Amino acid sequence: MQCALYQAGVCRSCQWLEKAYPQQIADKQRELEQLLSGFAVESWLPAQESGQAQFRNKAKMVVSGSVERPVLGILNRDGSTADLCDCPLYPSSFRPVFDVLKTFIARAGLTPYNVARRRGELKYLLLTESRANGQMMLRFVLRSETKLTQLRDALPWLCERLPQLAVISANIQPVHMAILEGEREIALTEQQTLEETFNQVPLFIRPRSFFQTNPGVASALYAAARDWCRELPLKSMWDLFCGVGGFGLHCATPEMSLTGIEISAEAIACAQESAQRIGLRHVRFEALDSARFAASEAGAPDLVLVNPPRRGIGSALCADLREMAPPYILYSSCNAHSMAQDIALLADYRVARVQLFDMFPHTAHYEVLTLLVRQGL
Predict the structure, then answer these.
(1) pTM
(2) Which of 165, 172, 176, 298 is the least crowded, having the fewest Cβ atoms under 10 Å away?
(3) 334 catalytic per annotation
């Protein structure tokens, strides 16, 4: 992939951009194999590659500059700013939206936040696109509600020029820290859910719910989990750290009992909406802490699927899984280092199958799907 921003030294977020893509995949696969070298992996599946450009469905833009000439992009450690509106990771549909938003910022008087001076109101713009229907979600991250009335008053102008903006909200993030968003979300449009579809499974995105940023590879990841589960004798399943329910909704059958657990109530609402759309009857989605839920349950399902944050599932949940001893554990990880540490704590399981998914091209990061089978099965 060619990137003028990288070549000019403006942005170096894609640390591996100078490395040929086949070499990127080979290096990631080599690292993964080294991390799992202490386990007898029975089957290595070929790595799932990604498109090299325009694969992201979300942009997180720091807003800097002046209200008359806003800059959308990144803020470097030395205080310099860089405009990333031409970033080749974004689909071509994003650039016209960025151009209109720059004009809108001036019309609405949304003063960009100045980190050094701790002044201004508009900190970030977060833009997400549905590949299913082209609708978009736009979030304004503000320091306070000071400019909220001006934002509301100017919104009809923006919606008239960008009718694809189906979901708009304002997030209030008052602290002077590198935190992307705050706890309070203010809806600015009646619609507050963006619909996406992966493998004919409807999924829903709300402003504060997590969603994969590489829909092409995410679709392949969910499809692989579904196919692996269909090969197993399953009647019940837990989907822990389930987010909006992507894994569980792909893997469940009408006859299967599915329980999805996620700390975010907003994500659980999305998962429940998807389950109703699909028509699954034996489904339970709840907003709970996954580790506490597992510790409180008396029995175990046939399969436990875990999709934890980068820290992994941790020793406490590993201990609970060892005690419950479900026949199968399906582990989806965005950090193979913590996954390997967790697998070492699950000594009663053999590593039956592993596959790498290149969710983050041009970086050292990747996703992994691993099937663990209880010893003796």
Answers:
(1) 0.95
(2) 298
(3) yes
